């Protein structure tokens, strides 16, 4: 991976925003629907799965870019060195935490994928019952703690990565622009973390134990089959 490192780093940075960053935001908004109740969450799930060529979109638009971003990110995490003279103390700490949260996010996403989307692919869980799956997970204190750590790590990794992206691509040039950018992304990190945690708390509601009756579903089967 040392060869063409400039290209690899630029591609890694770009994929962290498009499409991986978009996927994280979409995931956040989808799960936040759980705060409105099981029906709203299932409606959102059904809408996503009604998109044309959804499997192709997932593989090409999410999982392949995410895999590249994760694998190259792990390479960077275990080979990069902090540079205090270049980034200053605060930015050096952010550089370190970017690598730590990258590893945590990779492990969390892999496990979450296995618990949810992979089980759907195997036919062990229906899309409409993902709310029940999440309810079972977050009802266990240890797993809830792991999920809270995971979503906070993912939120930090994305928002701090966005700060670095804007610098490396020459969008925020100069100390003042970078300082303002820091405030913006710290604020977004807090908002995303609160929304993710609110979603996890919502899944603890006993209503998620039952399959809701929503528009487009008859007897637990979607109208589009």
Mean pLDDT rating: 88
| Rg calculated over all Cα atoms | 19 Å
The share of residues in helices is over 70%
What's the assembly state of these chains?
single chain
Shape: globular
Largest sheet: 2 strands, antiparallel
Computed structural class: mainly alpha
Total beta strand runs: 2
Q: How much beta, percentage-wise? A: under 5%
Please report the number of helical segments.
9
Which consecutive residue ranges, at least 5 long each, have pLDDT under 50? 217-225
End-to-end gap: 45 Å
Strand adjacency order, main sheet = 1-2
| Secondary-structure element pattern, one letter each | HHHHHHHHHEE
What does this structure look like?
With 225 residues, the chain is mostly helical. The protein has nine helices and two strands; from the N terminus they run H-H-H-H-H-H-H-H-H-E-E. It has helices at residues 5-17, 20-32, 38-49, 54-79, 84-115, 117-122, 130-138, 141-168, 175-203; strands at residues 217-218, 221-222. Helix 1 (5-17) packs across helix 4 (54-79) and helix 4 (54-79) crosses helix 5 (84-115). The model is unreliable at 217-225 (pLDDT under 50).
What's the short story on this structure?
This protein is mainly alpha-helical.
What brief labels describe this structure?
225 residues; mainly alpha; two-stranded antiparallel ribbon; 75% helix
Layout of helices and strands, plus pairs?
Layout: H1 5-17, H2 20-32, H3 38-49, H4 54-79, H5 84-115, H6 117-122, H7 130-138, H8 141-168, H9 175-203, E1 217-218, E2 221-222
Antiparallel strand pairs: 1-2
